[in-house]
Specification:
By secondary structure, the protein is an all-alpha fold. 55% of the residues lie in helices and 2% in strands. Helix 9 runs antiparallel to helix 14. The protein binds acetyl coenzyme *A (ACO).
Length: 402
């Protein structure tokens, strides 16, 4: 049930809800989740249908503008994005200024933040035309930024976008192509990556989206707000989980595939030992995205002719966990990122680039949520209260007398 909280100034009451487990921060018409039933819908459309039939740019349009585009509108949107894929030449110096081993998520958030230095016309969050242009610039440039971050980290030359290619193809070519070679993009890889972007495109008020909204609620511009969202996504309890899952699987594999002893360590709550890729704040039955990814994993590995012992290991871990009281009682199931890493690895992405792929997918959701907030007359600056538990009043003691 929905209860609108009484205004604090009228009652003097404060609600303490650490981690916001029960507190809604907003109304929203974008994404619907029923965690008990395992339902996820974007603008009313079931995620399974969108994953199967739609494409990432179409879903981006749907999230941002509220309706599926007509063929003409989708083409116009796609063309507009293509016209903005280039980065200012000065951006090249920006990438080479970071240490080689810099984590690409750190580079990504810095680069997104830096966009507001290049587009100073975009700083007014109430200028609808500029906001639309900033949205297009972000969707167009994020793959270029992500690919450049990767290329710089391995010392390879940067490739300009090729706008004769589709959105995902272009990103793959900039990531894996070389100026000296003709890069053939595998359509199976394009299809699966596009689908994974669709699955990640929005998830209502998760940590990074709430961050984007909170920053935006101060009327900060879209680039600054999204940059903060990238930082929130970096953490292993959120987007960083896809990297953490693969590292966990690699460690178990290195230690002789001893799933049982790993699960024992998880259940004993050894510090820092969690079954990464399991559990979700909202889904308490299953994550509908995980079911789609699991199916795709086997299919894509078969199509690529890759056999990865980590996939068998992940399936064994899931099997053990699903029959273990610890996980059953706590309603812990695989989340979207339990299997994605195996696919990303098969495509050839290094482990530390996985979370960047999540960011590319989540971007339309951040933009749609930010715009919904800016257009909502009920929006106020986000300013949580606290329950103070520190010292009462006491008096300053001179440093020599302490
Ligand atoms: N492994 C082992 N135990 C777990 C796990 C896990 N992955 N997740 C939750 N638990 C346990 C908790 O220790 C807790 O046990 P307790 O009741 O004995 O104290 C119980 O299950 C409830 O968990 P909470 O941490 O209270 O659940 P919360 O909703 O706060 O956390 C979260 C959700 C952060 C996703 C958590 O399940 C987790 O850390 N999972 C691993 C990281 C991960 O995969 N994150 C990706 C999330 S999805 C996404 O962002 C795409």
């Amino acid at each position: 049930g929905l209860r609108i909280g009484p205004l604090l100034k009228e009652t003097g009451h404060v609600t303490l809800d650490t981690g916001f487990t029960n507190t809604a921060s907003t109304t929203s018409a974008i994404t619907y989740i029923d965690g008990d039933a395992g339902i996820l819908r974007y603008r009313g459309y079931p995620i399974e249908e969108l994953a199967e039939k739609s494409s990432f740019l179409e879903v981006a349009y749907l999230l941002i503008y509220g309706e599926l585009p007509t063929a003409d509108k989708l083409q116009a949107f796609t063309e507009r994005i293509k016209r903005h894929t280039l980065l200012d030449e000065k951006f090249r110096a920006f990438f080479s200024a970071f240490p080689r081993r810099a984590h690409p998520m750190a580079v990504l958030s810095s680069a997104v933040s830096a966009l507001s230095t290049f587009y100073q016309d975009s700083l007014d969050p109430f200028d609808a035309e500029q906001v639309d242009l900033s949205s297009v610039r972000l969707i167009a440039k994020l793959p270029t930024i992500a690919a450049y971050a990767y290329k710089t980290s391995i010392g390879q030359p940067l490739l300009y976008p090729d706008n004769s290619l589709g959105y995902v193809e272009n990103f793959l070519r900039m990531t894996f192509g070389l100026p000296t070679e003709n890069y053939e993009v595998d359509p199976e890889i394009v299809r699966v990556l596009d689908m994974l972007f669709v699955l990640h495109a929005d998830h209502e008020q998760n940590c990074s989206t709430s961050t984007v909204r909170l920053v935006g609620s101060s009327q900060a511009n879209l680039f600054s707000s999204v940059s903060a969202g990238v930082d929130a996504l970096f953490g292993p309890l959120h987007g960083g989980a896809n990297q953490a899952v693969l590292e966990m699987l690699e460690n178990i594999h290195k230690n002789g595939d001893d799933v049982e002893s790993f699960v024992r360590r998880v259940k004993n709550k050894e510090p820092g030992v969690k079954l990464m890729g399991f559990g979700h704040r909202v889904y308490r039955n299953y994550d509908p995205r995980a079911a789609v990814v699991k199916k795709a994993t086997t299919k894509v590995l078969d199509a690529l002719g890759v056999s990865d012992p980590l996939l068998d290991l992940a399936m064994r871990l899931e099997e053990v966990a699903l029959h273990d009281d610890y996980f059953v009682e706590r309603k812990l199931y695989p989340n979207v990122d339990f299997y994605t890493g195996v696919i990303y690895k098969a495509i050839g992405f290094p482990t530390n680039a996985f979370t960047v792929l999540f960011a590319l997918g989540r971007l339309p959701g951040w933009i749609a949520q930010w715009r919904e907030m800016m257009n909502d007359p009920a929006t106020k600056i986000g300013r949580p209260r606290q329950v103070y538990v520190g010292e009462g009043e006491r008096h300053y003691v001179d440093i020599n007398a302490r």
